[in-house]
Design goal:
The protein is mainly alpha-helical. It has a single domain, classed as nmb1532 protein domain like (Four Helix Bundle (Hemerythrin (Met), subunit A)), CATH 1.20.120. The protein is built from 7 helices and no strands. The longest helix is centred in the middle third of the chain and has 37 residues. The radius of gyration is 18 Å and the shape is globular. The structure holds fe (ii) ion (2 copies). The site of one fe (ii) ion (FE2) has 6 residues, from helix 2, helix 3 and helix 4. The site of one fe (ii) ion (FE2) has 6 residues, from helix 1, helix 2 and helix 4. This is Hemerythrin-like domain-containing protein. It comes from Variovorax paradoxus.
Length: about 220
Amino acid sequence: MTHSSLIVIRQEHRCLSAMLRSITLLLREHRRHGTLPDFDALQAMLFYVDEFPEKLHHPKESLLLFPKLRGRSVRIDAVLDQLDRDHAHGECAIRELEHALLGFRTMSGTVQCEMRRDNFEQLMRHYADFYLAHMRIEETQILPLAESVLNADEWAELDAAFLMNRDPLAGHEADEPYKPLFRTIVAALHGCGNVGSVLEAFTGTALPMFSDTPPPRRPRP
Ligand SMILES: [Fe+2]
Ligand SMILES: [Fe+2]
């Protein structure tokens, strides 16, 4: 049986993953053409990451799911400790990223433009790699463990909490107040030809992203 809370977690992972990959691709395209990115769109994309994955998704895992899995083995507790540290680090990292984007935007008409672009792109790459690795651990180690050890009462509690408090863009039609945000993000991605994966992720039709076999490591830029 697939539990609602696991469906929500996986859909939210697909959305975050599609968004991170899309921002990276968008930046690469603008660098290749020597053009400035659409700062309003980039700001909207980072706002999405800050507003939902950072403020809704990760706290749900740290506060509701992980405590139910603790105390079963030293190894699993160590993995959960690392994932909790990642969640705390992510909150600081998104602030740093938003500041770097503001710096790039504000200074883009000056001699500092390329230095600011380099700084923002480097932080963005680190943030994306960091969360993709984090979600891979959750999907290959933590979610399968939860499926094998949690009882019906624990699932009922988790399912209720995860369904009540979910990303308003992930896996279904965007909630009304967030439709303009969704349109801004999709319009920006049309320009770099990567709109498909984000749409699939947001509408819940994207394929599962993580398997037990880790993907090849990306070469360092
Ligand atoms: Fe997480
Ligand atoms: Fe997660």
